[in-house]
Amino acid sequence: MVTETASDGAGDKIRCDACPVMCYIKPGAAGACDRYANQDGVLVRVDPHILLERTVSHGGKLVPFQASGDWDGKIVHQPELFVTAIGAGTTYPDYKPAPFIVSSQVEGVDMVTVVTEGIFSYCGVKVKIDTDRYLGPEAATVRVDGEAVGHVTTSEYGSQMLSLGGVHHLTGGSKKEGRVTCDALMDLSNRKAVELTIDGGASVIVQAGQPPVVNGVKEERMRVGCGSATIGMFAKQWQGKVDEGVVVDDHITGVLSEHQAGKLLDIPATGIKMKGRRSTPGRYFQVAQPGTGWGGTDISDPLSILGPFDPKTAKPGTTLLMVSTTGEHAGYYVLDEALKPVQRDMPPELQFSVERIQENCEPALCTVLFMAGAGGSLRAGVTDNPVRLTRSVKDALTRVTSGGAPVYVWPGGGITYMVDVTQMPAGAFGYVPTPALVAPIEFTMTLSDYEALGGHMDYVQPLASLRDVSKDIRQLPWPGQGI
């Protein structure tokens, strides 16, 4: 893609106006962002402009289409083609219309897709890490190469959550903090592995769509449920096979004989005593400290969370199954004459139950959601009255996508959106050294709605004309669900 150039008497160098850095680029070289280069005195976009094709099989080979040569442009007439903003260029400075405002017909309806690569200083990623292991205290600082890039946020069911990036880390700290934050966000968004360290907690390697690696150990599965939920799911399978069951969990440890599920199955009391704080029958909080041991606690010996059995109720020979919420840890015990649990070999029927817990645990993965606010340059590139675009998005007249992937637009003011990076083509994200991330964003609506919101109608071009303005177009198979 060719962008506008600026002549300022700098010899053979040309000045790039694609971002606020305004690099001077000598012939044959690229700018600081590696996205634009000086090719024979013309400012060009280094990466190809990406089109997504639904009918190409997933994982198919890349097919380049050049403006010259044998390409007859037939691909642009196919109805399942979507023009992404990847490789399209930016709207900077704000007054410029979006690089591509493309018209097409979908099932007889005239449509417009406005595409641009947004420069986002106000952006970050939300990271979901499927693990029960303790990563660090809530609100603890997350670091890359020693620099603060975000913090631990509230954990969710079976997952630890991180909030990384944001304008304060990108621009509010030292130059190194901003650079490291930008690099980490770009790598995470481009589905590369990044090692994070958490103050007072663990080291974790995060890569979108891959298992997390916590303190050098690859996580295999997320928990089937909390300790109480596990009791509810498996109480019936344990009935008649074991007298007592304890599911160890950092949050809610479950006890079979006390739990409502056990009561309904007429499982008798065993005299077991639990440490921690009793919530409701069969549910205990704070049986141990958070950690990377059994059920996300800091224990390696499950008996450490038990008090003495009640001699008025307990009987020698009582059997006890202790298991973690993932089935990774399990032990079988029998009370001796002193009413102390003694470990024995796991009976096959209980081993089968432990394996069933493991089977019901989903694979542990890292999820990376890129989050950004579409500000002035983006909206002005679509319409000369930017608030109309915001209203059109809120009224569901305009659909927002990122690299063809569906996004979630937050309610309230502005266009604040989140997108799953695994649904986007690889390498969809770039950067500018201000520092800020560069991410694709597309707005799709009917031609009549575009005209009504004050769109740049003079810049609307038919889909088939892309071959006349783009020197390098690549067709990719749709990587995810898309629009």
Annotate the secondary structure layout.
Elements: E1 5-6, E2 14-16, E3 24-25, E4 36-39, E5 42-45, E6 49-53, E7 63-66, E8 81-83, E9 100-106, E10 109-120, E11 123-130, E12 141-144, E13 147-156, E14 159-165, H1 167-171, H2 175-189, E15 194-198, E16 203-206, E17 213-214, E18 217-218, H3 227-238, E19 244-248, E20 253-255, H4 260-264, E21 277-280, E22 283-285, E23 319-324, E24 330-335, E25 341-344, H5 348-359, E26 366-374, H6 376-380, H7 386-394, E27 399-402, E28 405-406, E29 408-409, E30 415-420, E31 430-432, E32 436-446, H8 447-452, E33 460-462, H9 466-469, E34 472-477
Parallel strand pairs: 6-34, 9-33, 19-23
Antiparallel strand pairs: 1-2, 2-3, 4-5, 6-8, 7-34, 9-10, 10-32, 11-14, 11-26, 12-13, 12-15, 13-14, 15-16, 16-17, 17-18, 19-20, 20-22, 21-22, 23-24, 24-25, 26-30, 27-28, 27-32, 29-30, 31-32
Tell me, briefly, the overall form: elongated
Widest beta sheet: strand line-up: 18-17-16-15-12-13-14-11-26-30-29
Regions with pLDDT < 50 over 5+ consecutive residues? 1-9, 56-79
Kindly state the percentage of residues in helix.
Answer: 10-25%
Mean of residue pLDDT values? 88
Structural class: alpha+beta
Spatial gap, N to C terminus: 25 Å
Helix run count? 9
SS elements, strand count:
34
Rg over alpha carbons: 29 Å
Strand content: 25-35%
Q: What's the story with the biggest beta sheet?
A: 11 strands, antiparallel
